[in-house]
């Protein structure tokens, strides 16, 4: 084994070499360095100067570790800010995710522990500040004090110096937010809102069953706790669980995964056992249902056969009754037709007899009237000549004196009081 080096420089003092074995002095001979306020030089009695004291404070690893931690924290915040990139993973519907998915995953997975711890502490302090500090009242107080000072300074300056003090600090051009800044800010707000909207829909429609179950459990617990805790207390619990649950899982990943695997195996075994038991009972139930179905089917067929026989008998009886009624109706109709024919023949014979009697009477009357004189015949003209009438032919007709100078009966009628009441038809 090689001998240790003679001198190792641990600080700014080159004489701070570790002592060799056998060179450690007796406790009474050891010198403990002390700060001397009166002597600025290093003496043999163990006093050090102020320069050495500064080197002790600023040259030690404490300051270096502080600088190192500050640099690491700044680097982690830069990494966290640069993690806002759109991931390659897409939703179940094929839509791309937002860059806040990568940001929050990087934040809550403690990939940058210092940045995550500081954000967690800042969130907790914000919740307590919103609960116990009257921030809104202080904001209004600062606002009215600032405006009051500005108005007072402006009025006092114009009264004393003929120039307002507040207007003298007015910039040449008022500050405006650049359009690029507004557009980038609005884009970030849009991405943030879409992050919550997309995640809510993914949880609601069970894209990840475990996430849906976890959200259900969280909502159920929150529903119970909101009755007991105020809103700020519930918010504090939610933020703590959101930040610390991933940290606990990452710190105990092997143990938690082992227990999760055991629980999954037990659940699968129980599910298989329940499935087998359900299959067994289902098979028995199916057999029972088949047997009962066969029994009821046979009974139904028996009932249907009996009903069919009864229906056939009823139909036969009905047909027989219909045939009987049809036969009786046919006989009745035939008898009625025969009676009607007989009555018709009788009436026809009676009518023939009446016609014969009428003819006989007409012949008798013709024979009796054949001896009348032709002077009594109203037709005084021949068969081919037009008829000639006189007032004696109509003994009951009203009399009209003949019009002198008129010879024909037609003119007499037209000149009479009866003929003038009508016009000759055209």
Quick overview:
Helices cover 65% and strands 1% of the residues. The chain has helices at residues 50-58, 61-82, 99-108, 113-132, 135-160, 165-168, 179-204, 209-225, 231-251, 253-369, 409-415; strands at 34-35, 47-48.
What does this 3D model show about the protein?
The protein has 426 residues and is mostly helical. It contains 11 helices and 2 strands; from the N terminus they run ββααααααααααα. The chain has a two-stranded parallel ribbon with strand order 1-2. α4 packs antiparallel against α9. The longest helix has 117 residues. The protein is elongated. The N terminus and C terminus are likely disordered.
Task: Give structural attributes.
single chain, 426 residues, mainly alpha, two-stranded parallel ribbon, 11 helices, disordered C terminus
Got a strand count?
2
The fraction of residues in strands falls at under 5%
- The first-to-last residue Cα distance is 170 Å
Name the strands of the widest sheet in spatial order.
1-2
Please give the oligomerization state of what you see: single chain
Shape: elongated
The helix count comes to 11
Provide the structure class. Answer: mainly alpha
The main β sheet shows up as: 2 strands, parallel
**Average pLDDT metric:** 78
Q: Are there runs of 5+ residues with pLDDT below 50, and where?
A: 1-46, 371-383, 422-426
Order of helices and strands: EEHHHHHHHHHHH
User: Radius of gyration in whole Å, from Cα?
Assistant: 68 Å
The percent of residues in helical segments reads 55-70%
């Amino acid at each position: 084994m090689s001998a240790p080096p003679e001198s190792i420089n641990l600080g700014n003092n080159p004489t701070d070499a570790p002592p060799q074995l056998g060179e450690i002095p007796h406790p009474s001979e050891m010198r403990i360095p002390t700060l001397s306020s009166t002597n600025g030089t290093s003496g043999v009695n163990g006093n050090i100067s102020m320069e050495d004291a500064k080197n002790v404070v600023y040259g030690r690893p404490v300051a270096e570790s502080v600088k190192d931690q500050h640099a690491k924290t700044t680097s982690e915040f830069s990494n966290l800010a640069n993690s806002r990139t759109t991931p390659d993973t897409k939703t179940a519907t094929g839509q791309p995710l937002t860059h806040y998915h990568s940001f929050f995953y990087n934040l809550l997975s403690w990939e940058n522990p210092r940045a995550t711890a500081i954000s967690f502490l800042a969130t907790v302090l914000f919740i307590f500040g919103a609960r116990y500090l009257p921030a809104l009242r202080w904001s209004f107080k600062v606002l009215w004090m600032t405006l009051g000072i500005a108005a007072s300074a402006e009025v006092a300056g114009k009264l004393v110096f003929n120039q307002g003090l507040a207007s003298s600090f007015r910039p040449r051009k008022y500050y405006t937010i650049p359009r690029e800044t507004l557009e980038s800010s609005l884009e970030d707000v849009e991405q943030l809102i879409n992050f919550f909207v997309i995640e809510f829909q993914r949880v609601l429609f069970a894209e990840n069953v475990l996430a849906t179950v976890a959200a259900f459990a969280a909502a159920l617990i929150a529903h119970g706790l909101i009755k007991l805790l105020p809103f700020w207390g519930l918010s504090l619990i939610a933020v703590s669980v959101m930040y610390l649950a991933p940290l606990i899982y990452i710190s105990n990943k092997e143990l938690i995964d082992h227990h999760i695997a055991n629980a999954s195996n037990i659940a699968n075994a129980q599910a298989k056992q329940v499935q087998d038991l359900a299959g067994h009972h289902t098979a028995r139930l199916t057999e029972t249902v088949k047997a009962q179905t066969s029994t009821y089917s046979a009974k139904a067929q028996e009932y249907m056969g009996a009903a069919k026989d009864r229906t056939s008998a009823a139909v036969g009886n009905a047909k027989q009754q219909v045939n009987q009624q049809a036969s009786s109706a046919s006989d009745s109709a035939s008898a009625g037709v025969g009676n009607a024919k007989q009555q018709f023949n009788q009436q026809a014979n009676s009518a023939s007899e009446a016609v014969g009697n009428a003819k006989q009477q007409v012949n008798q009357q013709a024979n009796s009237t054949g001896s009348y004189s032709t002077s009594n015949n109203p037709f005084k003209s021949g068969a081919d000549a037009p008829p000639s009438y006189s007032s004696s032919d109509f003994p009951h007709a009203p009399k009209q004196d003949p019009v002198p100078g008129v010879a024909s009966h037609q003119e007499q009628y037209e000149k009479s009081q009866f003929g003038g009441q009508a016009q000759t038809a055209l």
